[in-house]
Task: structure prediction
Amino acid sequence: MPGEIRRTQLYQAYKQKAKLTEFAGFEMPLYFDGIIPEHLSVRNSVGVFDISHMGRVMVAGVDSERLLNYVITNDVTRLGPNSALYSVMCNDSGGIIDDFVVYRLESERFLVVFNASNREKDYNWFLRNSKGFKAEIRDMSDNVAMLAVQGPNASRTLQKISTDDLTKIERFKCASARLAGIEVFLSRTGYTGEDGFEVFIWEASAAKPDNATILWGNILEAGRVYGGEPCGLGARDTLRLEAGLCLYGNDIDENTTPFEAGLNFVVKMQKDNFIGKNALQKQKDQGIGRKRVGIVMMEQGIPRPSFQILNGKNEEIGHLTSGTFSPLLKLGVGMGYVEASEALEGNAVSVKIRGKQAKARIAAFPLYDAEKYGYKRKIVV
Result:
């Protein structure tokens, strides 16, 4: 029934251990021990998230590649089997309907994983635009559980319960594997900025969640030696913000184009045709008026969505779309949109917080030192 709260396959495994909250119609863990320790566990070692609330759609058939290339902005023709790419799909005006990851499982079979808040909208968009294509679109969301194991010790954690050599799976590559004796599909992707895997558990429906709950327990036990923690949505949000990753509905939406959001790399204008191409070509030719940027506070204060961003002349040049306290940097950080002419790294700005202006600067993503943290880190943990 409309408005009814939903629960993932793992709800019973953590309902007594987590602070729960409603998100995208699901009752999900906000945190277990706390947002800060969970955030730092991922940055410094390993954390485990339930992400079964996300949408999962299988696209298969002789026209599956052609359909995807028409619906999304990126180019799936460059994907080999067991590879993934990040993309968005746009409306006719070039506004972002959603962002997601596409996996090519086989020559004519793809998996698309999108945001929980857009499950029905995205599925229906695919269906609506599939007419004339020989492709089957099947919603797998309720029959597949999904975990994210993130952090510099993610690979070591999963290797402890697998006989497969997981080091062979490179970033944005994927493979079938067994974890604790359970068949899974592993993708070296994530939403934290760190190295890690997203784990698809095929045989784990809401009615029969055993494989998901068994694997949840085994992964947590394997990560215990590294100080691994179960993590909730709170840490997921602070981690993605430090890394500069967008949250749909906050940082991108149907009134935002990928060029404004700084997602130019997922738009392949050389493709013959895709939904929104004409509008995006026009914007590319004319130039953008605003641009997504990172914000780092130079004075005390925590930036929040909708807070104004001002330049040195006290003129409003934009607003924040996300903001929080960074557990790693120990100061306020955010992202938002400012006039393109003001979107210069290091540019001094201020954020209006509760009627007072606090000094800040425009920063490049990620907001942390990429040599010390994140999947590109040069320091071995």
About this structure: Residues 55-142 form a domain with the Alpha-Beta Plaits fold (CATH 3.30.70.1400).
